[in-house]
Design goal:
Number of helices: 17
Strand order of the largest sheet: 15-12-14-13-17-18-16
Radius of gyration: 24 Å
Distance between the termini: 17 Å
Largest sheet: 7 strands, antiparallel
Number of strands: 18
Strand content: 15-25%
């Protein structure tokens, strides 16, 4: 690590609470800022009071905020390369940050490190309508890209629920979202990357093509690595035709077993739904109340419904959407649905938006943790039964919703006692793993879920991941403490 001047070291290391510790940090920050200013310009290196609280945390409810020694705001791949090379030489931890919308602590800086913020790298470098790709810098937001692609009749289909999220953050966490049942997740849409390794070397992977068998797929290795292997500075993204005709269908069911039976039938029907969401009756009540939504569901149906499916169908014409909706209605009626409601376009859009903001609703209701888990979709009822048992055993309230089409369940945990909360979350994640699931479907691991990953994952796999990290980042400076210690 970058150290204080020899005069401070000669009198022994400062201890926590020692006034000299603050002086030491000031000395380090001054030296560091001078070096980094030469690389990116003095206006783009923040230290001390210039570092706002926004830089110290993401949206993880359980994470501890940390203020870095400095925030660096590069404007190009070459500047990122220079900053990382300097950090590797001096042993200074580097954490990358996009919009800070993550839920697992993966972009919280180290208190003895620097935060590389991509807020200046926000250019859409190219939208290639012939090859159906976009080339973007990591600070480009989903909202920014969606506006640009809509103008040419295309869409980048990954919508993880927060349009202010950055593409760099999406790449780092392999973000998913509700449309994954039709289009897949981030790793299915990224064709190539420009990335800076922990050595300061620049790596370019992939290209404007959809298949290649030319050695190891380094693009896919970097996606989802949460900034521990490399810092992505450009991404080549696959675009799709934008379907402008659609319907949002709300289907109440009397229980989870009926939902579980309906999901594979819907997904395998050939209707190609864009969204298939499961929402329990508690969460449905909360998100509709928060959004002030009245969906026209009679009280007797509300009283009988323990679970809802929200299905979005899209196609190239209204006639095709109507045909698909009629087929869906017949199918779910046979599968035990209490009714089916084709929502007016404004209500459908409002319901999808409310579902996307379920995290903020849970946060406003003082949820103590938000977690996600992915299991084989046919196992969702069995998994949710285990979740409710874990909640009952520990005196915790656990409610949620999820991307039923791909088995990704999102849960809000209400348990203020930290030890009990750790117990119930551990049980919930273990139950999913026992059913063949994974600890996280799209939120990532970061700092907040790494203890659970270590307890559940195959040790041989974790050890291999450590060796891979060493190859990409031999000095161990890139986001240390994320994913594993």
């Amino acid at each position: 690590m970058l150290t204080a001047p020899d005069t401070a070291a000669a009198s022994g290391p400062p201890t926590r609470g020692d006034p000299s510790m603050a002086d030491t940090r000031v000395d380090i920050a001054s030296t560091l800022a001078t070096d980094l200013a030469a690389l990116v310009g003095a206006d783009h290196v923040l230290t001390g009071d210039a570092i706002s609280d926004d830089y110290t945390h993401d949206e993880a409810l359980t994470a501890e905020a940390h203020r870095p020694i400095a925030v660096v705001r590069p404007a190009s791949t070459d500047e990122v390369r220079a900053v990382v090379a300097w950090a590797a030489e001096h042993g200074v931890p580097v954490t990358a940050r996009g919009s800070g919308t993550g839920l697992c602590g993966a972009c919280i800086p180290q208190p003895d490190g620097i935060l590389v913020s991509f807020e200046r790298m926000t250019e859409i470098l190219e939208i290639d309508t012939q090859n159906h790709v976009a080339v973007v810098q990591p600070g480009v937001t989903l909202a920014q890209l969606d506006e640009a692609t809509a103008a040419v009749g295309l869409v980048y289909p990954v919508f993880p629920g927060e349009n202010s999220a950055s593409l760099g953050g999406n790449v780092a966490t392999n973000a998913g979202g509700m449309r994954a049942v039709r289009y897949g997740v981030t790793r299915h849409q990224v064709l190539g990357l420009t990335a800076v390794l922990g050595t300061g070397e620049v790596l370019r992977t992939g290209g404007k093509y959809v298949k290649a068998t030319s050695g190891y797929d380094l693009t896919q290795l970097i996606i989802g690595s949460e900034g521990t292997l490399a810092l992505a500075t450009e991404a080549i993204l696959r675009l799709h035709p934008r379907l402008t005709h659609g319907a949002t269908v709300l289907v109440p069911f009397p229980g989870l077993d009926e939902v579980a039976a309906a999901v594979p039938r819907i997904v395998g029907s050939g209707l190609q739904p864009t969204i298939v969401e499961y929402i329990d009756f508690i969460t449905m009540g909360a998100i509709t109340a928060s959004a002030g939504l009245e969906l026209g569901v009679p009280d007797d149906i509300k009283d009988a419904a323990l679970a809802y499916l929200v299905v979005v169908l899209e196609n190239r014409s209204d006639d095709r959407v109507e045909e698909d909706t009629a087929e869906l209605a017949e199918m779910v009626t046979e599968l035990g649905a209490l009714d089916l409601y084709v929502l007016p376009s404004h209500s459908g859009a409002a319901l999808i938006e409310a579902r996307e903001k379920a995290f903020w609703t849970a946060k406003a209701m003082n949820a103590d943790d938000i977690i996600d888990m992915v299991v084989p979709r046919a196992s969702i009822p069995q998994y949710l039964a285990a979740v409710q048992q874990a909640g009952s055993d520990t005196g915790s309230l656990v409610v949620g919703c999820g991307h039923a089409g791909d088995g990704n369940v999102h849960l809000s945990v209400f348990q203020p006692d930290p030890d009990t909360r750790k117990d119930v979350v551990g049980r919930i994640l273990r139950a999913g793993a026992d059913l063949g699931g994974a600890v996280s479907g799209e939120h990532g691991i970061g700092t907040e879920k790494k203890a659970y990953l270590a307890a559940i994952e195959d040790p041989a796999k974790l050890e291999l991941m450590r060796r891979i990290k060493t190859a990409f980042d031999p000095a161990g400076i890139l986001n240390p403490g994320a994913i594993f210690d």
